[in-house]
Amino acid sequence: xxxxxxxxxxxxxxxxxxxxxxxxxxxxxxxxxxxxxxxxxxxxxxxxxxxxxxxxxxxxxxxxxxxxxxxxxxxxxxxxxxxxxxxxxxxxxxxxxxxxxxxxxxxxxxxxxxxxxxxxxxxxxxxxxxxxxxxxxxxxxxxxxxxxxxxxxxxxxxxxxxxxxxxxxxxxxxxxxxxxxxxxxxxxxxxxxxxxxxxxxxxxxxxxxxxxxxxxxxxxxxxxxxxxxxxxxxxxxxxxxxxxxxxxxxxxxxxxxxxxxxxxxxxxxxxxxxxxxxxxxxxxxxxxxxxxxxxxxxxxxxxxxxxxxxxxxxxxxxxxxxxxxxxxxxxxxxxxxxxxxxxxxxxxxxxxxxxxxxxxxxxxxxxxxxxxxxxxxxxxxxxxxxx
Length: 387
Description:
This protein is an alpha/beta fold. The protein has 15 helices and 14 strands. Strand 13 (311-315), helix 13 and strand 14 (330-334) form a beta-alpha-beta unit. The protein starts with a helix and ends in a 5-residue tail after the last helix.
């Protein structure tokens, strides 16, 4: 019944043939990606292509306020529309926020929108905002409000998927690397912070560690966390073997996890704690000073990728083929099982997908500390940090 409903809506919205997209008609572009940290950064290759091919076009980004900072200083983005669609508020408040977003879109008088969500509500929002050209994903008929639907490929990397709509503009991406503009004043603030904490670069490498994560507005998925015992062994060995200084990153919710981690190790030099003390851009500035990042599938992992430092990413319930950083200076560590990955674009709407259905967390518990250490050591040696 639902598929039939979507088909009828498609007929209503697409009764006329979609008109071709002409570059000379494009003056204002809207990009809709509300969250989360990694997903926002996955769109930066798209922004790069749009800006390089349409240098005079004004790009507006619709995003949730809690991660809008990631594009707030992006020189390619002229304006931001905040739309907090995922906060747990009442129905009337959700409707009020949606109406405000529609009004902002109408006011923007956009010529074209890239709609990077599968939910039909995102397409309806652009349609109600009178955007004439709407490029977006079509998944099980949900792209009925798009004038130029893009088949949603669940097996594609998120970056590649976001770029597929460029075909309607006759464009393609030369590079799929992420990027993030870090203000110079924050870079200096990061250097000052590390100096104040006693870090001396000549003494050894700086390794960022993120043992928390898995918490976003509307979603809690702590199954993405590697057991603390593994992180403790990694910290101890990197401190002993490489004289590495460990930089603990995260938000205030991660403080308790980091407390327990550090209680089980003796590090020389002592770890630097930054959790809860940084904005997203300040976190990016700190990570930019690091020689390596180690952590699970999380926002800080993708920030580290975007600022260009090597990463060791630990994957379990999610799919590294869709989400992991790519390139010679990145390593993925995972323990593949018949049931993993269990959290995919196909299963994301299932009610029990954020917990381990087997009750064992074997995909994460099966990852050994020596596997992470081997990957970390290889990358540190590539940067010239020898034990």
